[in-house]
Amino acid sequence: MSDITPAAAARPQGHRVHAKEYETIYILRSDVDADAAERVQARVADALEREHGKLVKVEAWGRRKLAYPVGKQRKGVYVYLKYAGGGGLVQEVERNLKLQDAVIKYMTVQTASDVDMGALQIDPEETKLGKLELQPEEEEKESREKLLGLIEPGPDAPRPRRDELEEFDAEEAPVGEVKEPEET
After folding, report:
1. Among candidates 57, 62, 67, 65, which has minimal Cα distance to 78?
2. Domain for residue 166, yes or no?
3. 24: which of 60, 82, 108, 143 fits an S-S bond (Cβ 3.0–4.6 Å)?
4. Which residue range forms the structural domain that includes residue 75?
C-alpha cells in the first residue's frame, strides 16, 4: 500500500505545498510546574503533527502580570508558538489548549497567508520549549516601616479613600476661607 494521499497523487510533481503561518500565545496558570507546561507543549506538538503542520518557533516568556484577572489569576506564564499549516490546524491546536486545565487563556493570529512549506527553514533549537525555570512566586509584603507610616508613599501609590481619612475638624477653617485676626 502506498503512503501517498489521493490529494498528493493528483498534484503534479514539483508542485509546492502552500499553507498559512500562525502565531499563538497561550497563558498558563502562574502556579504551574515545569512538567505540566511540558505536557501542554507535547499536546500542541502532537496536534501539529496530526494536522501536518510545522512548528517553527517556541518561546517561553516566563511569568508576567496579567492586564486583568482571569479566573482569579493575576499572573500567568506566557508561551509563544509560531507554526505553519493548512485548514483545520488552528482549530485543532486551540481545541487541545482548551482541554488543558493549566491553560487559562490563548489567542491565535494569522501572520502570513501563503507560505511554501517545502522552503520553510526550521531551526531545531527554536522548536524546543525546554524546561521552564520559574522562580517561586513571592508575595508582595509591605515593609514594617511602610505599615507604620514612617515612609512616605511615592507619587504612583494609591491614594487613601475619603472614608479612610480622619474626621474633618469642624473648628478649623475650610480651605480658601481666611480667619479675621482678633482685635486686642
Report:
1. 62
2. no
3. 108
4. 16-124
Note whether residue 135 is domain-resident: no
DSSP secondary structure string, 1-45?
-----HHHHHSPTTPPPEEEEEEEEEEEETT--HHHHHHHHHHHH
Q: Could you give the angle at the alpha carbon of 69 between the alpha carbons of 108 and 144, nearest 5°?
A: 140
Count of all residues that appear for the chain in the document: 184
**Identity of the amino acid at 177:** E
Provide the pLDDT confidence category of residue 106 given band limits of 50, 70 and 90. Answer: very high
Give 45-52's long-range contacts (Cβ < 8 A, gap of 24+): 46/96, 47/89, 47/92, 47/93, 47/95, 47/96, 48/83, 48/85, 48/89, 48/93, 50/92, 51/85, 51/86, 51/88, 51/89, 51/92, 51/93, 52/85, 52/86
The DSSP letter of residue 82 is: E
Within the chain, residue ranges assigned H as helices are 6-10, 34-50, 89-99, 144-148
159: which 3 cell numbers?
491614594
**Is residue 31 assigned to a domain?**
yes
**pLDDT value, residue 134:** 61
pLDDT at 36 over 80: yes
